[in-house]
């Protein structure tokens, strides 16, 4: 499942939305488990159907992504998108895109309470792995002009602005 999640970053969301698999401890799966074994222990889900659903969901997710160079063009335009950073406070304080706001409970209330649903929003994280989920969440609540930065702030640093410091997270 780990390889699958790497290849299809939105697969967990797709599996949970359609099959209620992978969203919590009781229906979760490990990185070392195979798709076939996960399907078998979840009411013998048809593997081919699950694969087709993941692929179709990935195609929809790719429509949400925006490339770093395209974002740079938008930011230089007359109506730049709002930037929302979904990383940790520590990451945000260490390095962030100019004008970005840190996503959290307070910003969520602001977005739902005062932001125009027609305005452009770009969500980003460190490497682009999780920002798709936040973008999908906002799109699902009517913020149709929401995008997710492909590759996150790391891709931004490599492809647009190398003065934005790159970093690597280490877990103990």
Describe this structure in words.
This protein is α/β, with parallel strands linked by helices and 172 residues long. Helix content is 47%, strand content 9%. The protein contains nine helices and five strands, in the order H-H-H-H-E-H-E-H-E-H-E-H-E-H. It has a five-stranded parallel beta sheet.
Features of the shown structure:
Oxidized Rhodanese, domain 1, about 45% helix, 2 domains, about 10% strand, five-stranded parallel sheet, single chain, about 170 residues, alpha/beta
Report a brief summary of the structure.
The chain has 172 residues and is of the alpha/beta class. The protein is built from nine helices and five strands.
In CATH's first tier, which class of the largest domain applies? Alpha Beta
Strand order of the largest sheet: 1-5-4-2-3
In terms of per-residue confidence, which ranges show pLDDT below 50 for 5 or more consecutive residues? none
Derived from helix and strand composition plus strand pairing, the structural class reads alpha/beta
CATH superfamily of the largest domain: Rhodanese-like domain
Q: How widely separated are the two ends?
A: 23 Å
Determine the fraction of residues in helical runs and give it as a percent range.
40-55%
Q: H/E series, N to C?
A: HHHHEHEHEHEHEH
Strand-residue proportion: 5-15%
């Amino acid at each position: 499942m780990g390889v699958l999640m790497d290849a299809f970053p939105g697969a967990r969301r797709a599996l949970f939305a359609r099959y209620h698999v992978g969203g919590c401890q009781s229906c979760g799966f490990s990185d070392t488990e195979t798709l076939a074994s996960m399907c078998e222990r979840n009411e013998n889900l048809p593997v081919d159907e699950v694969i087709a659903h993941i692929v179709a969901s990935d195609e929809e997710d790719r429509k949400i992504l925006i490339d770093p160079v395209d974002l740079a063009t938008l930011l230089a335009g007359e109506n730049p998108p709002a930037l929302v950073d979904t990383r940790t406070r520590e990451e945000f304080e260490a390095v962030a895109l100019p004008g970005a706001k840190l996503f959290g409970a307070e910003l969520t209330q602001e977005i739902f309470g005062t932001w125009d649903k027609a305005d452009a929003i770009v969500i980003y994280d460190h490497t682009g792995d999780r920002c798709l989920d936040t973008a999908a969440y906002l799109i699902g609540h009517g913020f149709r002009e929401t995008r997710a930065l492909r590759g996150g702030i790391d891709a931004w640093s490599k492809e647009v602005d190398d003065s934005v410091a790159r970093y690597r997270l280490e877990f103990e």
